[in-house]
Design brief:
31% helix, alpha/beta, 436 residues, FAD/NAD(P)-binding domain, seven-stranded mixed beta sheet, D-Amino Acid Oxidase, Chain A, domain 2
Amino acid sequence: MSNLRVLVVGASVAGPTAAYWFAKAGASVTVIERFPEFRTSGQNIDIRTAGVTVMRKIPGMEAAVRAKTSTLEGISFVGKDGRPFATIGASGDPDQQSLVSEYEIFRGDLAKILLDLTKDDKKVKYVYNEQIASMQHKDDEPITVEFANGTPTSQYDLVVAADGATGRTRSIGFNCGVRDYIHAVNCWAAYFSIQGDRLNGSKIGLGTSAVGGRFISMGPDPAGLTRVGMMAISPRDKKDATLPFREAAKQGDDALKRYVAQHYQGVGWRTDEILEDMMTSDDFYASEVVQVKVPSLYKGRFVVVGDAGYAPGPTGTGTSLALTGAYVLAGEIGSNKGDVMAGLKAYEERMNPIIKDMQVIPPFVPGVMAPQTEWGIWIRNWMFTFVAFGMQFGKYFNWTTALWATSFAGDKYGLPDYECFKEGVKGETELVTPKA
């Protein structure tokens, strides 16, 4: 693969992971990111199942992740008055189901770890403030890429879309609409941090629900901050329920903050205090939660990986799918001696059953986190109380959380050890930030 030229779009989790493995196999990789600088914001995410397998194949990554875990030891669900009724702890046992992972980490911290793993590789170049304007490709031929912000037009042997579920690169590569292949689950989420420790030193996060499918939580941050997460869910049969959210998002963060604040009025607990902090937050991030299901993972030498190709929605498996897909993509092309088309076919064949399995939305999810009615909240609260009681008895009551955590079970996919990754040469990286 020493002559293979790879363009990766997106510098979050899937993109840098793909860059790591392609460079390890000997390819030359350019990673472009539409934001002008590396982004450190985002929600807390889990690494589980096949994601842990891939993480352990990268020297030093598991230790780096453990050093940056969110310190969250559990979640305490509270009523409007702030009184807890159920606390569900973290799982340090890979065979024990839990709502909190052993490898719980903030998206920005994981992305930074992956960036650090690739930034000293001479075969990897990062270009910020850039995105694809157009692509010309046909069958098994290199792709000619025109860029939007000044990077010279270039040819690549492979273009990898890793820019997220609602990113525009998929629509360019597949010649489709941006929302084609998106399966809505009528859910959106928002995240930001608050200065100071609002949990008074506790490592147990707090969360509450309100009618209308609204959930809000606070959790600890190792840096002494408090992380806030919000999830808004509409009934699954409501048509285009996230349209108002998407329209607000088009107007920028200020408009989106106002929309979120209005949506959460009247929730009670400490919500008013949290919303006041949100309005001045400088790391606010919100997005629609969706599933992506494409008819094929590639077209010619254009391929999708991670959320761009198979966002799983509210399953908790998105990060693991991104890590796995990037590893398999580079591994299969490398195993086919740089035969891109044969490698892409093998990538799709290996990933399809994994994607199908990880995209299964567990029963009651996401509605169990944010029921629509007071009656639904009352039933859910009793359910969580029972789950919390069951988890006190460890594996003997493991089945209580398995109702919605089956997709987090141990790795069962048998990922291969690709020989092509034993031949990479490491050096120095080049970071480029072109002017708009």
